[in-house]
Design a protein that fits this description.
- The complex is a heterodimer of chains A (245) and B (447).
- By secondary structure, chain A is an alpha/beta fold.
- The radius of gyration of chain A is 18 Å and the shape is globular.
- Chain A has 8 helices and 11 strands.
- Chain A is 35% helix and 24% strand.
- In chain A, strands 7-8-9-4-10-11 form a 6-stranded mixed β-sheet, sandwiched between helices. Chain A has a 5-stranded mixed β-sheet with strand order 1-3-2-5-6, with helices on one face.
- Chain B is an alpha+beta fold and 447 residues long.
- In chain B, 47% of the residues lie in helices and 19% in strands.
- In chain B, the strands form 2 sheets. Chain B has a 6-stranded mixed β-barrel with strand order 4-5-10-7-9-8.
- Classes of the chains: A alpha/beta (245), B alpha+beta (447).
- At the A-B interface, helix 2, helix 3 and helix 4 of A face helix 1 and helix 8 of B.
Chain lengths: 245, 447
């Protein structure tokens, strides 16, 4: 592997009116991840080096199978890496397991999925409240804060609707409200506009831009959308399991 | 996630697939209903049968014969009787006065000539010519007479119809051997109800130049019984049989022609002990008085063993039903886990711990278990109540005390619902653990 490819990619803080200190720094060295073992082993990340400053907004691009979602899941603590170093906000992620890893996901990370990931049987408000319930927010505060979050994403009047009663754009806005419910310092978005039409894409992007700028959290968004990439300011390309700046 | 939030999520989740939930609840309801019904029926059977036996009721009645006990077999169920011994009012008083004797009912027996229907036909001549050849011939039998007011404390089971009215001299009940005599189907005892039969009591008037005449009575058959009161085809009132014996004893002794006069006032006595445990003592007391006795002591022990076996069988059937219900719950939850892999992953991605997911699925199973338990228990108790009503009607018809179901429902209901809930939790343990251990990466579906 060439020295260029192995050089850490460093991303400065580009948030406009970010709240200082709200985001977290991310540092990866020689990060590897392999699915399966032995003859069936599939190496996905082959040595990712990465430095993100707190509050930076990063678009992660690359062909399908390049490892974008895997990198995102490692950053989000969805699974531990099989090798290398990964620190988020000073926390050594490979050393976390079980309840401590769940606490990291709950307290540090906010996730926005391409498929929205809303619980079908709960209303928009209850979906947002669920995240707060997991974080141990007192019941008395949950409803008020959920309504505030939904109001902030322009869905104050749809709080009592279930996901099936909302459009794709509206569902993604609920998912953003849920992701922000516990005031995360690292927001991870996996193709957040992949299932949306153009109008909804614009609205969701505007919303994401507004909230991450306002809150100053570090944002990593996986996307194929050039507009999203342009908006993020920093584009990282992942190819063959290695990040290219 | 608190239990409250887990329950809310579980409640919404079980309503997500109403058909599957309904089938799961139905499976639990069937299992718990069957178990509750079988348990309650077994309990009633035990209470009723063992209770009756324990109280020393008719089923455990002691038969006292007008004979001395055979010294070599005084403790067996059916001892051989010794020499004849008069059973009179003094003996009856002595038996009634013995400790632990609940009741002592005298029994009369009288040999009769029976002319079965159709009545009014020719009697075969002594030379053997029979103008009504092919009809059932008259035959000799024994009529047993008791106080029919006390039939509830006697080993008499009504198979069809009703017991003759107390004191009646025109009504009798017959045993199944009567149907055999008439070549009738013993499985359809009601066929003889309402028919009339003529009973003749023989009286020997002279033994030298043999002269026998009979006193004829036409009686209606009101019921068919199985009875252990005495060896006889007919069960009648003590007034009817007493009158017949008076008629015979007003003649002369016909031992030479097979018609001896009764040697004792009563043919036997049916004694009921205060409790099952007293039977042996009472028998010993009566033996001391000089009379032969018999009682189904071994039968009681055998019945108890059989009832225990019945309990085990019914319990096993119920457990099989519950196991099937448990498999139904486990299957439904496994399907739910398969369907919701991504949802579980998302929940973990936003911070759910393994125990939160575990709680979610256990709560879901708990809903099915409790709902099925409530439904099944209600249905099971309904079935028991219906069965109890039928059994009660039968017992009352038999002149016996009815069944009291008052104490059963609350305890059984609690066990039914609680057991179903526990079963649901046990059945859900493995699927819920599988769900809880799913990795959070299911949320993004990478590889």
């Amino acid at each position: 592997m060439s020295e260029v490819l192995r050089r850490p990619v460093s991303v400065p803080h580009r948030g406009g009116s970010a709240v200082a200190g709200a985001g977290v720094a991310v540092r990866a060295r020689g990060l590897t991840h392999t699915y399966g073992r032995g003859a069936r082993a599939v190496p996905v990340l082959r040595g990712v080096d990465l430095d993100l400053e707190p509050g930076s907004h990063v678009a992660l691009q690359g062909p399908s199978g390049a490892g974008k979602s895997t990198l995102l899941s490692l950053l989000g603590g969805l699974e531990p890496p099989t090798g290398g170093e990964l620190r988020v906000g000073g926390v050594d992620l490979p050393g976390l397991r079980g309840a401590r890893l769940a606490a990291y996901r709950r307290e540090v990370v906010g996730f926005v999925f391409q498929h929205f990931g809303l619980v079908e049987v709960l209303t928009a408000r209850e979906n947002v409240m669920l995240a707060m319930s997991l974080a141990g927010v007192p019941p008395g505060q949950r409803r008020r804060r959920a309504d505030e979050m939904l109001g902030a994403v322009g869905l104050g009047d749809r709080a009592g609707h279930r996901p099936g009663q909302l459009s794709g754009g509206e569902q993604q806005r609920v998912a953003i409200a849920r992701a922000l419910a516990n005031q995360p310092r690292l927001l991870l978005a996996d193709e957040p506009t992949g299932n949306l039409d153009e109008e909804s894409t614009d609205r969701v992007l505007d919303l994401l831009h507004e909230v991450v700028t306002e809150r100053g959290c570090t944002l990593v968004v996986v996307t194929h959308n050039p507009r999203v990439a342009a908006w993020a300011g920093v584009q990282l390309h992942l190819r063959d399991g290695v990040v290219h700046g | 996630m608190s239990w409250r939030d887990g329950l809310l999520l579980a409640l919404r989740s079980v309503l997500r697939r109403p058909a599957r939930t309904a089938l799961t609840v139905l499976a639990v309801a069937l299992g718990s209903g069957l178990l509750v019904a079988l348990a309650a029926i077994a309990q009633v059977a035990d209470t009723r049968v063992i209770g009756e036996l324990g109280k020393g009721g008719p089923a455990t009645a002691i038969k006292v014969a007008a004979a001395a006990p055979d010294p070599i077999a005084p403790d067996s169920d059916t001892p051989r009787a010794g020499a004849p011994r008069a059973l009179d009012d003094a003996a009856l008083r002595a038996i009634r006065g013995a400790p632990s004797v609940q009741s002592a009912t005298p029994v009369l027996a009288q040999q009769v000539i029976v002319v079965p229907p159709p009545l009014g036909r020719s009697i075969p001549a002594f030379d053997g010519t029979d103008p009504d050849r092919g009809l059932v011939q008259p035959f000799n039998a024994v009529a047993v007479g008791v106080d029919l007011n006390a039939v509830g404390s006697l080993p008499v089971t009504l198979l069809a119809g009703r017991i003759p009215a107390a004191g009646s001299v025109t009504e009798v009940a017959v045993g199944l051997d009567y149907l055999d005599r008439l070549h009738l189907d013993v499985k359809r005892p009601e066929a003889v109800l309402g028919s009339e039969v003529e009973l003749g009591t023989p009286q020997v008037q002279a033994t030298g130049d043999i002269r026998v005449r009979a006193r004829w009575t036409r009686v209606a058959i009101t019921g068919v019984v199985a009875q252990q009161v005495g060896e006889g085809t007919f069960l009648a009132s003590s007034q009817f049989v007493g009158a017949a014996r008076s008629w015979q004893t007003s003649g002369v002794d016909g031992t030479a022609v097979g018609l001896p006069l009764p040697s004792t006032k009563y043919s036997g006595v049916i004694v009921v002990a205060s409790s099952l445990d007293d039977i042996h003592t009472v028998r010993a007391e009566i033996t001391t008085l000089g009379y032969s006795t018999s009682a189904p002591e071994h039968l009681v022990a055998t019945v108890q063993r059989y009832l225990h076996v019945v309990d085990i069988v019914l319990g096993s059937i119920g457990l099989i039903a519950l196991t099937i219900a448990a498999l139904g719950i486990a299957n439904a939850l496994l399907a739910a886990v398969r369907e919701r892999r991504r949802e579980i992953g998302v929940l973990k991605a936003i911070g759910a711990r393994d125990r939160d997911v575990l709680r979610w699925f256990l709560a879901e199973a708990l809903f099915s278990g409790v709902a099925g338990g409530v439904l099944g228990t209600a249905a099971g108790l309904g079935a028991v109540a219906a069965t109890g009503a039928v059994v009660n009607g039968y017992l009352v018809q038999q002149g016996l005390a009815g069944i009291d179901l008052g104490g059963i429902p609350l305890l059984t209901a609690l066990i039914g619902v609680g057991g179903s809930a526990l079963l649901a939790l046990l059945a859900a343990a493995w699927p819920a653990l599988r769900a809880a251990r799913l990795p959070a990466r299911e949320a993004v579906g990478v590889l």
